[in-house]
Structure formats: structure tokens, C-alpha cells
Amino acid sequence: MAQAVEHKHTNYMAIFWWLAILTVLELAVIFTGLPKLVVGILLCSLALTKASLVAMYFMHLRFETRTLGLVALTPLTIGTLLVLLLVWDGNPFGHTSGVPPTAATTESH
Amino acid sequence: MSQVAELHAGTAVEPAESPLTPESWGKLGMWIFLAGDAVGFGTLLAGYGVMRATSADWPNPYNVLGINLTAFMTFLLICSSVTMVKALEKVGAGDKSRAQLFLLLTALGGTIFVSLQAYEWTHLIERGLHIGGNPWGATLFGTSFFMVTGFHGLHVSGGVIYLLGVMGAVSRQTDARRKYNMTEIVGLYWHFVDLVWIMVFTFMYLL
């Protein structure tokens, strides 16, 4: 029951409004006409902020033990590594075979 | 006193952090499951990113899929996360009837979400989006869309059944507080489903 007492102090409605505002901001970013890279960075930042709010407050990660925090961080670490490896592999200019992607390979996608 | 005895005596008085207490086994298990599941979703999204980056004719998801309905679905899942934490609060307070109500509302939110997803899929299939092709460009666009949103939809469907099961368990107790741990664990699963949708919505619909 100690957990119930700890969680009581979280203002869940405030988190809800933050998530709603951030979602509206995400939709607004698309219509700003900013360069695609900037839009991408903004959308990724907003999504990560929303995900962090859910994990920290709704999933109570902020009040949990360090061990559970480490368990939760593991997929983030693996995911980041995976993305870095795939980005390298997926880069059309970074093919290790030395053969640039042809029209035929592009069409196959 | 032997070294072993000293060690045990030291452990008994040491207020060291230990998550492996009997009441947290289920929570630890759920967190480990969710970590594995997160890697699964991460792999799908990373694969989607690579396919999109290497494709010359990837359609603009915003134009093809539309975002009005999915924005509402996102809002719906956020609302269901709030009803989930409220349910946990009520279970912790021993308010059984309110706890059941909030668990039911959470399950209802999930059911509406899956129904809207089915509607969206039907609409897109009628417009020509299939696993094996679409009129807008890269074939893998449809494949990845149905794979990722379908995998998430399965999670939501499973979550609704799980929530109803926990609601039944709460209703059978005279003291709802005895199911606090169980409710917290189903809550972790449900919030994870919400968290994943936040990423899916951004990467598959908005970017």
C-alpha cells in the first residue's frame, strides 16, 4: 500500500493536459511549412517527450526502484543501437558493397 | 561471528534497495515482458524507417492515410490511460465500485480504438491499400502499415481482454485493495500500449 500513497501525489489530470497539448502541437508542426528535417526533429522530440511523460508518471517509473528503471532503459539502448546500425545500412550512399543502388533495386522497394 | 554470518547480519539491517520483494515479482515480470515487447516494436519501426529512407517512391503518409481519425484515436488512448490510473487510485482507496467503473471505461476506450482501427483499415482497403500493393507508390508502404498498426491493434485487443479479467478479479473481492498489485500490473501493460501508439502515430502518420 506504500505504493498507493506515493502515487497519490501525482496530478494525473495535469499529465493528461500536457499530453493533449503536445498532441495538438504535433499536428500544428505539420502545417508550419518548416523544412522537412526541422519538422522531423520537432515531431521526434515531441513524441519522445509524450512517451517519457507516460512512462514517468502513468507507469510510475519516476517512483520506482533503480532496477526497474534499468529494465525500462534496456530497450531504449538496444533500440538506439539498432537504429544507428540500420541507418548505416539503409543509407543509399553508405553501401559497403561499393555498388551504388540501381534503378532496379529502387523499384523493388 | 563468521564472515557469512556477518554478511547476513549486515544484509538484515542494511536498507539496500531491492526490487525483488515478493509483492513486486509480477511487476518486475511485466517490466521485463514490456522491455522485450518494446524491442519488437522498435525493430518494426526501425525497419519501417529504413524501407522508407531507401525507397524512391514512398507515398506521403499524411496525404494517403489522413490524420483526423488517428488524432482522435490518439486522444482516446490518452483518455483511457487517465481512466486506468484513476482505476488504480480507486483500488488503492478500496473503492470497489468506482474501480470497476474506471476499469470498464478503460476497456471501453480500447474497444472503441480497435473498432475505429477496423473502420480505418476497411476504408483504406477500399481505396486500394493492400499488403501487396497500393496505387500511390512503394509496395512496402502497405505491408509496413498493416504490419505495425496490426501488431499494435492486437496488443490493444489483448489489453481489453486482460482489463476485463482484472475487473472480474476486483469484483470478486470484498476488499478491492487486495488486487492493487494486479491492477497496477495491467496498468503498466495498458500505458505501454498507449506509449507505443504515441510513437506509431508520429512515425507512421505524421512524419
Question: Topology, please?
Answer:
The complex is a heterodimer of chains A (109) and B (207).
Chain A: H1 2-7, H2 12-30, H3 36-58, H4 66-90, H5 103-108
Chain B: H1 3-13, H2 25-54, H3 61-65, H4 68-93, H5 96-126, H6 139-171, H7 180-206
Helix pairs in contact in B: 2-6, 2-7, 4-5, 4-7, 5-6, 6-7
Description:
The complex is a heterodimer of chains A (109) and B (207). Chain A has 109 residues and is mostly helical. Chain A folds into 2 domains: 1-64; 69-109, no CATH class. Chain A contains 5 helices and no strands. In chain A, α2 (12-30) runs antiparallel to α3. The model of chain A is unreliable at 1-5 (pLDDT under 50). Chain B is mainly alpha-helical and 207 residues long. Chain B has a single domain (25-206), classed as Four Helix Bundle (Hemerythrin (Met), subunit A) (Up-down Bundle). Helices cover 79% and strands 0% of the residues of chain B. Chain B has helices spanning 3-13, 25-54, 61-65, 68-93, 96-126, 139-171, 180-206. In chain B, α4 runs antiparallel to α5 and α4 packs antiparallel against α7. The longest helix of chain B is centred in the last third of the chain and has 33 residues, at 139-171. The N and C termini of chain B lie far apart (65 Å). In chain B, 40% of the residues are buried. At the A-B interface, α1, α2, α3 and α4 of A face α2, α4 and α7 of B.
